[in-house]
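User: Please predict the structure of the protein below. I'd like the answer in structure-token form so I can feed it into my own downstream comparison script.

Assistant: Understood. Taking the following sequence of 292 residues as input:
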Amino acid sequence: MRYEGQIYRPFSEANSYLLQCTIGCSHNQCTFCGMYKDRIYRVRSLEEIKTDIQMAMDYYEDVEKVFLCDGDAVAMGTEILIEILRTLYEAFPSLRHVGTYVGPQSTLAKSMAELTSLRAAGLTKVYLGVETGDDRLLSEIKKGVTAQEMLQAGQNLVAAGFNLSSMVLLGIAGTGDRAREHAIATAEITNAMKPKYLAALTYTPVPHTPLYQKVKKGKFILPDPFETLEEMKLMLEHITMDDLKFVGAHASNYLPINGTLQKDKGKMISTIQNILDTKDMAALRSEKMRGL
């Protein structure tokens, strides 16, 4: 397989064939993210992409899952994306899943008819970096949309029939009252958006990013492990939607915790509370074991 630059994918796409459709991220301004800062966004040609699919056919013969890279493949033209999906499903008889990251701005730029046609063509799962439901915080981290626009993007994806995974960031508000506001607002946007999955990650400073510089200068105070757990607990307490798969096992999190809300809500909150009461550092993932 041939790739340009470092390739990123959600941990749930570990067994997927990674097809690079774009280089970088169409937004690429988030202050906390360093994934695509070393490249200029561009769309690869359809010819290049089809050649890569042929290479994958020769190597794998057949696959069940594909993930479209880089940061925001949905920013591509709809007809081109549909042609890519058609080619993939013709190439791999066992293909049952095609996923991609989606940005809120590029999602809102698509009409409902376009989103529905992409779903019908076989794009099954989308990962939306919501980060927070707090309007002020979205502006500070330069997501490029308001909370209402983020909500609309998510609701459009759900309405189009996608299996939506909403990704949120614990610790991105720092410490104090802002953390509480962030946790509650994130729960509220989740309730209104109604994703299938809620993936919680913990903010980790990435060198050469604007927020990293604030951390180094003492202008942004990182919450300690127990403060991030308080934030997670508060968010869980305020989520009221049912049949939500909570995925908290990401390598960045101090406490790997998964469950289905509302069924496992009490057990999950109790697990967190027990650690908060005992301040048991041994029960948490150590800093050297945490990752991005």
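That's the full token string. DSSP finds ten helices and ten strands in the chain.
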